[in-house]
Design a protein that fits this description.
single chain, 200 residues, mainly beta, 8-stranded antiparallel barrel, 13% helix
Amino acid sequence: MKLKNLKALLVVATISVMTAGPLSAQRTADISGLHLGVSLNGSSIQFDDADFGDSERENGGGLSLIAGYNFTKNLGLFLSATGASISPDDGDEYVLAHGDLGGRFSFPGSSSFVPYLELAFTGLAAEDDFEGERVELSGTGVTGGAGFNYFFSSKLALDLNFRYTKGEFNTVKVGGQSFSDEDGFGVNTSRFNIGIAIYP
């Protein structure tokens, strides 16, 4: 093979290697349609009620599931459920749960990195045993979130996000009796999720 042909072949091979990544990334940037995900979750909660003052922030871990549908590459809806076991410093563990229904605003570009913002309506619940009685708190809140997908392939991505919820518990159930309060108890929570997203 002549030296001139060898150089041409080397140039073509180099261009192919250099463009393979961006072309693959461009394919992965199409995130329209259904997506599913599962994540490990770190949650924290703090009561911030004006009548009772602020409590210490309590933390724990659990699992988060998500199902969503992107109508375009930029706009979609999602439904997620998160459960965590909270471990306070001076008490027994209790369960904290979130259910989110919201919108996701994605910003795909020409790489495998796709950041997004979220805004959601959230249902809150906590459950614990107190002096032999099952105590359940429930309420609602508003959640803002931010995160990103990093695509390993056209269908599989790392999903990492942070969500902050501001809301209140306005229903207390002790044993079989429920009590509601329109004012409720103010609360804020934060959640950090890291897992995988699948775009089938």
